[in-house]
Amino acid sequence: MSMQAAPVIEARRLSRTFAGPIPVHALREVDLTVQSGAFVTVVGPSGSGKSTLLQLLGLLDTPTSGSYRLGGRETAQLTEGARCGLRATAIGFVFQSFHLLDGRTARQNVELALLYRGVGARSAAERARGALERVGLGDRADQRVRTMSGGERQRVAIARAVVGGPHVVLCDEPTGSLDSTNSGLVMDLLVDLNRDGTTIIVITHDEAVASLGSQRLAIIDGVLR
Ligand SMILES: Nc1ncnc2c1ncn2[C@@H]1O[C@H](COP(=O)(O)OP(=O)(O)OP(=O)(O)O)[C@@H](O)[C@H]1O
Ligand SMILES: [Mg+2]
């Protein structure tokens, strides 16, 4: 997938309504253009649509209406298989609650992201070790995630997000469960990744994180501005 010509992300009038007795208009006609290499931060109150937006951008959910182009490619008509393939190769995710397999080691968690994509076991192990070194956990590769601190877990999650070389890393409150020291470590890693050309989109309540953004956005009641 070439990311040079078009913006890496181009959403037009993207809406997401959750059906129910009272439908919830979680996102209302969002327009968003993100150039390759940007560092985007999104702030907004609870329930304003931040996670919904990230789920759409990450191809974890589909819009009710509107268009979403990722790497120049319209995603609306993709089959579920094609969406999964594109998600696995183009996007990395980091969540507030880490979403790791606690009974597995750090290396196993990172490797899995590659094994799902058909990377061979030896190459996956090598690349996982490299990604863990990058986040300062080279010496913890064989430690079970269950026994790691929150800050260490989030660094494992970042290693997992980036091991496949995604164009975009989407983060939903990545420092939300961390103290200020560990938040700082995570922020440094995101800044590093961005310097190396990875496009970063971060949802945050944390003013220190928001201030890192080269493109700072706010969302209120599903309206992005
Ligand atoms: N699967 C769903 N079904 C029904 N309503 C949903 C669903 N997901 C989200 N919503 C609703 O959509 C609105 C936006 O939710 P969203 O999770 O995007 O908010 P948020 O900005 O991430 O909030 P927070 O800061 O608390 O995480 C909320 O009113 C929420 O209740
Ligand atoms: Mg949320």
Give structural notes:
- With 225 residues, the protein is of the alpha/beta class.
- The protein has a single domain (9-224), classed as P-loop containing nucleotide triphosphate hydrolases (Rossmann fold).
- It contains 7 helices and 10 strands.
- The chain has helices spanning 50-57, 80-90, 106-115, 121-134, 150-162, 180-195, 207-210; strands at residues 9-18, 24-34, 39-43, 65-70, 73-74, 91-95, 168-172, 199-203, 215-220, 223-224.
- The protein has a 6-stranded mixed sheet with strand order 6-7-8-3-9-10, sandwiched between helices. A 4-stranded antiparallel sheet has the order 2-1-4-5, covered by helices on one side.
- Helix 3 (106-115) packs across helix 4 and helix 3 (106-115) packs parallel to helix 5.
- The longest helix has 16 residues, at 180-195.
- The protein is globular and about 50 Å long.
- The protein starts with 8 loop residues before the first strand and ends with a strand.
- 43% of the residues are buried.
- The mean pLDDT is 95.
- It binds adenosine-5'-triphosphate (ATP) and magnesium ion.
- The site of adenosine-5'-triphosphate (ATP) has 11 residues, from strand 2 and helix 1.
- Magnesium ion is lined by residues 50-51.
- GO terms for molecular function: ATP binding.
- It comes from Nocardioides dubius.
- Residues 9-225 form the ABC transporter domain.
- InterPro entries: AAA+_ATPase, ABC_transporter-like_ATP-bd, ABC_transporter-like_CS, ABC_transpr_LolD-like, MacB-like_ATP-bd, P-loop_NTPase.
- Keywords: ATP-binding, Nucleotide-binding, Transport.
